[in-house]
Amino acid sequence: MEPIYLDHNATTPTHPEVVEAMARCHARHYANPASRHRPGQRARRALDDAREKIAEILGADLSPPRRDRLIFTSGGTEANNLAVLGIALADISPPPIGGGQGVRASLPGRIVISAAEHQSVIEPAEHLLEQGWRMDTLGLTPQGVVRVEQLPPLLAADTRLVSVLLGNHETGVLQPIEQLAAICNRAGVPMHTDAVQAVGKVPVSFRALGVAAMSLSAHKFQGPPGVGALIIRNDVRIEPLMFGGHHQSGLRPGTEPVALAVGMAKALELWHKEQKRRARRLSALRDRFERQLRTELPDVIFHGVDVERLPQTSSVAFPGLDGETLLMALDVAGVACSIGAACSSGATELSPTLRAMDLPKELVASSLRFSFGATNTEAEIDEAVRRIVRVCRELGGTGGVAPSSFSPPTSI
């Protein structure tokens, strides 16, 4: 059997045109972009062009006097760490006239996150908690939407940062970031959003969202692995987490990855040119998958279907079955999917997002994530459903017709 890859939220195959663009860049712009000689300055121009292209597509303004900042990182995890820790630990007032230090946020303060966050936001926030900070968590509705009404009382004088992701990595549920950011801005509290799963899937405008900072990662939208970015509003104070150079405004030292940045910009540009068609196609694949699966297995439950979702994500509970067992059986059957985020796949703890939606423990434990991408076809979706249904029947779940009505899996 040919494997069917339905785990595009974990990573996507790099687009061939991105590979070609990076190969050309490696050949032409191999010099260090921090070098002052002409080869170095040519590499610098390629890097700056990539940065400006990404910023333009994502609604950031790098031109004076607004001059937002786009800092290249190794991926979404580093971008989220830089945002959470860097903003929380930054000066919260300018230095006094005549010199001296401003008020430091390194004294214990408060950080607010949602119950739907990725581990790369949760763990930095928990690190602050261990240092004596207070961490408050916004709850979720049964559909997985952040409870906006819980935010205003948490915006106290010591609140240094709010972080809420744009699109959930497990359920695909989109969060009301503009509304949350407006509340934060009125209170003078910076807000960060992890847009890693949303960028390259749905239109995202940094300025329109109204946030102080936004994270993204190239390998989620057919760009190269190993590069991401943090966009920071021009008025936001942020401290570096690494030291050893003055690269990228002193916020992320180290030689900048020119070819990776070029690949990231190319992948985003390819998406941007046909974003509506891609979104329609992914939504159609997801809906086809869910419709067929519900027909064959009437007891399955899809999470977050009554609210706005990312087009590529389907979170499914298989009542009566164990998610870990089902995941392994599907892998043997040639269907690649996941339990939650890839960064948490080795953990035995049940999904924090699904638990925060007040779902029964048994339902959370039976849930898997299927995520679709540009390389999937309708034929693959149909075959994947056949394989999933066969495996579920063999494991003794989840309602529907007798096993004898099934045809065996076929090759794609």
Can you walk me through this structure?
The chain is of the alpha/beta class. Helices cover 36% and strands 12% of the residues. It has a seven-stranded mixed sheet, with helices on both faces. Helix 1 (16-28) runs antiparallel to helix 7, helix 3 packs parallel to helix 4 (119-130) and helix 8 (275-296) packs parallel to helix 12 (378-395). The longest helix has 22 residues, at 275-296. The chain is globular. The N and C termini lie close together (8 Å).
List keywords for this structure.
single chain, alpha/beta, Aspartate Aminotransferase, domain 1, seven-stranded mixed beta sheet, three-stranded antiparallel beta sheet, 36% helix, disordered C terminus
Structural class: alpha/beta
CATH topology of the domain at 4-11 and 274-405: Aspartate Aminotransferase, domain 1
CATH architecture of the domain at 4-11 and 274-405: Alpha-Beta Complex
Regions with pLDDT < 50 over 5+ consecutive residues? 92-106, 400-412
Biggest sheet descriptor: 7 strands, mixed
For the record, what is the CATH homologous superfamily label of the domain at 4-11 and 274-405?
Aspartate Aminotransferase, domain 1
